[in-house]
Amino acid sequence: MAELASTLPATPPRFFPKSLTPWLLSAPGAIFFLMLLGMPLLMTLVLSFNNFDYAEGIIATFSLANYMEVVQDDYFHEIFFRTYVISIAVVVLCIAIGVPEAYILSRMRSPWRSLFLVVTLTPLLISVVVRTLGWVLLIGGNGLLGKTLEGLGIADASAGNLMYTHTGIILALVHVLVPFMVISVWAALQKLDPSVEHAALSLGASHTTVFRRVVVPQIMPGILSGSLIVFALAASAFATPAILGGRRIKVAATAAYDEYLNTMNWPLGASIAVILLIANVVVVMSYNRMMERRFRRTLG
Amino acid sequence: MQNNGKLALCFHTLFVIFLMAPLVVVMLVAFTPNGYISYPTDGFSLRWFRAILENRSFVQAFWNSLYLGIGAASVSAVLAVPAALAIARYQFRGREALVSLFLSPLMIPHVVLGVAFLSFFSRIGVYGSFYALVAAHVIIIMPYTMRLVMASVFGMDRRVEQAALSLGASQWTVFRRVTMPIILPGVAGGWILAFTTSFDELSMTIFVASPSTATLPVQMYNHIAHTIDPLITSVSTVLIVLTALLVLILDRIYGLDKVLIGKG
């Protein structure tokens, strides 16, 4: 999203100097967004400062009680800690799997390359619920993984039961999010000049050395932006942790859901949501800063 | 173009298996003749596909999702085309801010949008209504529509429009007969991408859908939370096949790599 904003041409040619036209053209969308995005977010922020009582419901006051509860309660510490540990693990695995795969894809011959690119991207458009259901069938109590492990004599069938475990959630999230990493790295690879690789090879470097010392440094921005997308989506994922973790392994998104729809403590749920949002925005912003600095350094 | 080594192809094969395994497993179980989760080792059966049609709530949820997707994608296209034209063609104050505003839903976790819409809609008394759902989905899918429409507006050759203007066509005629046909693939691609995103959305919708406006993903999630049976796998299989068909269409009219990766 930040990349797009920075690629706008600095001064587009003027059709009619100083006309009202651009305002009129963008007004419907802008008003729609300010009303239907601005208002609800503002209301949530206000709600997070309200109090809640099981007998009286929401009490309209201004207090930091909800935030204090989230900050001080070990229960919420555990939930947020878990959310970010899972997200970091997912990012690391997505890099380990997605970067080599994007490189392999880019080196494929013509018909295969577009075929496997479509194979990699199509799951992105298939519902997360369906993809997570697939993982339930694979790693569930009587799943294929357990049966395979037992059949091969590697381990007991119960070793393949990863339902309600961190491993299961991480595995399924990597599956859901790895296409984003492949996309980012793929886009960065397209800008590479193949003659640099040829030069390294002709000077006697091995394929592994070329990948490590020539290719990876050049596609670093792609890896970073992929990591950012994967991290942000993993930290706010709902369906996968909800289905594979249930009530036993709660993350921030499922905790907010429970406060809203089960406990009905909306102010507390709102404060969890606000923290989740701020954390997301901070990660995105600091990433943009970092990229700007990198960019400036390479130019200077 | 060099070939990949053996090790690379091995890695690639494992990657494709990892990506496809969950989907293949779901589709296999859907054809089981048994009443429980099992692989169709003793014959294929379509009984679980027939069972979908007898299940009122899944059929209702499917239509809800379809109308919702069509409605939200169309509204987002109608809002995105003029806004993209303004952003691409004019220099005005707040232009950058406008781009950030339209792309901002990408930065907000869907669960956060869900709780925000839940309190907002119940406050103004439209909670659970279909039109409230459409409005919420327009916000979520707008970045996708906007991106594709903007890319095609930036990419078009302005001289064609200038030629039409100089030959005496009115502004509106130029838009209708010249601009629109040229950017149509981008708009259509954006529409389909927006539609699939809306059709599959769960994390936000689960907060704002009432039982009568529950979408297919919401209905499926509630079903899975309750029980996992072959019925849910046959519903998923239908969804996988429909999505694959849409992807095929999207690939034909715009190019899937261009839609999802940007200028490749």
TrEMBL record, chain A:
One of its GO terms (biological process) is transmembrane transport. It is found in: Cell membrane. It is a multi-pass membrane protein. The chain crosses the membrane at residues 23-47, 79-103, 115-138, 169-189, 222-244, 264-287. Residues 80-287 form the ABC transmembrane type-1 domain. InterPro entries: MetI-like, MetI-like_sf. SUPFAM superfamilies: MetI-like (SSF161098). Keywords: Cell membrane, Membrane, Transmembrane, Transmembrane helix, Transport. GO terms for cellular component: plasma membrane. PROSITE patterns: ABC_TM1. It comes from the Bacteria. Belongs to the binding-protein-dependent transport system permease family. CysTW subfamily. This is Putative spermidine/putrescine transport system permease protein. It comes from Franzmannia pantelleriensis.
Automatic annotation (TrEMBL), chain B:
It is a multi-pass membrane protein. GO terms for biological process: transmembrane transport. The chain crosses the membrane at residues 7-31, 66-87, 99-124, 130-154, 174-194, 231-250. Keywords: Cell inner membrane, Cell membrane, Membrane, Transmembrane, Transmembrane helix, Transport. Pfam families: BPD_transp_1. CDD domains: TM_PBP2 (cd06261). It comes from the Bacteria. GO terms for cellular component: plasma membrane. InterPro entries: MetI-like (IPR000515), MetI-like_sf (IPR035906). Signal peptide: none annotated. It is found in: Cell inner membrane; Cell membrane. Residues 62-250 form the ABC transmembrane type-1 domain. Belongs to the binding-protein-dependent transport system permease family. This is Putative spermidine/putrescine transport system permease protein. It comes from Franzmannia pantelleriensis. The lineage of its organism: Bacteria, Pseudomonadati, Pseudomonadota, Gammaproteobacteria, Oceanospirillales.
